[in-house]
Structures are given as C-alpha cells and as structure tokens.
Amino acid sequence: MRVIHPFSSVYNEQSKILILGSFPSVKSREICFYYGHPQNRFWKILENIFNQKIKNDINYKKDFLIKNNIALWDVIKTCEIINSSDSSIKNAVPNNIEKVVNSSNIKAIFCNGNTSYKLFNKFFKDKINNIPIICLPSSSPANAKYSLEELTTIWKKEINQYLKKDEK
Questions:
Q1: Which domain holds residue 59?
Q2: Taking the model in full, what pTM does it have?
Q3: Which residues form the catalytic set?
Q4: For the chain, what is the domain count?
Q5: Element (H, E) at 60
Q6: Is 168 part of any domain?
Q7: Average pLDDT rounded to a whole number, residues 57-78
Q8: Residue 151 parent element (H or E)
C-alpha cells in the first residue's frame, strides 16, 4: 500500500544535528509524530543523553528538540510499505532533506539505523556531501542486539561531539 508521510520535520535555523529515520511506523502515523510506538527507545535514549524526562506530548517533544538544537525527520516522503516493516519499503520518494540542511546550522546528520542510512545514501550521497553522515544503531525494538544502555552510550558519544556549546 502506498503511504504518504503524514507529519512535518522539526527544526529551526539553530538546529545543529539532523536525526533521520526511514519512514514512520504505523503507530507513529496514527499519532502523527515521530517514534510513537511505546517500545521504540528513541525518546528514552534522548532522555538519558540529556538527563531529562520527556513528556509524552507532541508539543513538548517538539520544544525539547528545538531547545536542544536537534532537527528530526525521515528520509522518505512516500513509499509502498507493509505495516511498519522497513524491509518492505518499495518505490520510495525522498523528503527534501536539502531544505532542512540549507536553512539551519546542521553540523552532522545521524541516521537512526541501517535502512535510514542506506536510503539517505541512495537519494542524497551526491547532493549533501560536506556534512558528516553517521549511522547509529536503530532505536527500534526490533534491534534487540543492543540494550537501552548500549544505545545511549553509542548515541551520546556521537551526538555530543556536535552539540557542544559554541565557545565564546
């Protein structure tokens, strides 16, 4: 079934990092926001990195991301997908990632998992090449190889390099 991404990116001109997923899960599409499945560890990872509780409220999450200079989006704008299965994605059309990069202060792009990374490279390898692209282990519950603690350690090490406050 062909599905269109139902919600917009989150970013502003101060955003320093861009975190990209592949395409929203069924649950995320239902609630119209990122990482809506309660077993996805994305928000828990960010809670651990920033040592801050993140309320289960879309506006709060948007404010949290902006306050912490994080842009968030998915690589794919529309595709054929079966339920939430990244491996079933076909005939993908990308989002306009260049728009976010060109209208913000992005220092690095982090792909949440291998599918996001592969799709990003398929569509943007020759378009966005002056910014580091880092593949992080997926926050999906399907990625049972990593514990929450391991994910947090890996994500924090990578992300903190680019979110350090500018020296004055």
A1: 2-163
A2: 0.94
A3: 40
A4: 1
A5: helix 58-67
A6: no
A7: 98
A8: helix 148-163
